[in-house]
Amino acid sequence: MLPSILPQKDLFALVRIIQESRHVVVCGHRGPDGDALGSCLALAEYLQQLGKSVSVVLPTPFPDFLRWMPGTHAVQFYVHHERQATQVILSADTIFCLDFSQPSRLQEMQGAFMRSRATRVVIDHHLAPDLSMARLVVSRPEMSSTCELLFRVLLDLGAFETLSRNAAVCLYTGMMTDTGGFTYNSSRPEIYEIISMLLTKGIDKDRIYRNVFHVYSTDRLRLTGYVLYEKLQFLAGGKAAYFTLTREEMQRFRFIRGDAEGLVNMPLQVKGLRLSISLREDTERDVVRVSLRSVDDFPCNRMAEEFFNGGGHLNASGGELPFPLSEAVRTVERAVEAYESLMQ
Ligand code: 5GP
Ligand code: MN
3-state DSSP: the chain helix, strand, coil percent, rounded to 5? Predict the structure, then answer.
């Protein structure tokens, strides 16, 4: 049996907030991934079962490969629908923030969020939460995913029995995507207890895996080949690798949102490689999006904070640079040089 995760005080506070809520907004971070979307959809489903009116509002769309997830048709986006989304946010009495714990991760939606007078609850597994952003902050950085944490919270709320299959699918998806299909950050036994409980809800985990990881377009597969053959550069005597992707290259391979996902993990298949970095021109703004992945104890998050205006987890972090790719490459070279001693 999994022990309870919330102290009594927090559990009571949460129960009370939920009881008193009527119009709930559930939101996740900009550029939502499987964990952000999965946790939002699962919580929305639970609150809907309780009879609440619930809207999932995300700053920007989720990648196409997550469209199959149950409940995505009702998700609202802030970009291109600013007025409508702002109205929804301002009319909520309660806002749940999932998979982020710093308002800045909402980017363009942050203004509307800060203007709202709703009671806020944060449920998240990122480091360094801003404790002032919500009445209740449930922060557990030791958890592999927000979906794992949300499952534990739902368990504390006594919601397991009535948890729907759809919610179970969403929770499993987030746990799976934030651990690369349970290949990193995934050695805590509780994770597998949760999985076995989710399986009793009738989820098909093999199918979920295929839905997420085996849905490449032919262009996406060729983009992989192109990046690995033509673009990949090694630094620090083969301990680190990086590649760049320009807008023009993305157009050439008919890039769609989500196509970059997973590419940055591939160089880690090289024996002895500790750190992989991708630099990608953003399709909408004049910035370079940076993704970092590492193995063992190499701290990507420290590097992301120090060099890439970002942060994240020990083995998976991100950030962005406000200058051209060529300059971004120099930043990578400097960062790798500064951290080379940690790659031995
Ligand atoms: P990805 O490379 O998939 O975009 O991001 C990996 C992880 O890095 C995310 O789950 C998130 O924790 C973190 N991350 C990505 N971008 C940013 C950013 O701009 N700022 C911060 N603080 N963390 C980020
Ligand atoms: Mn997450």
Answer: 45, 15, 35
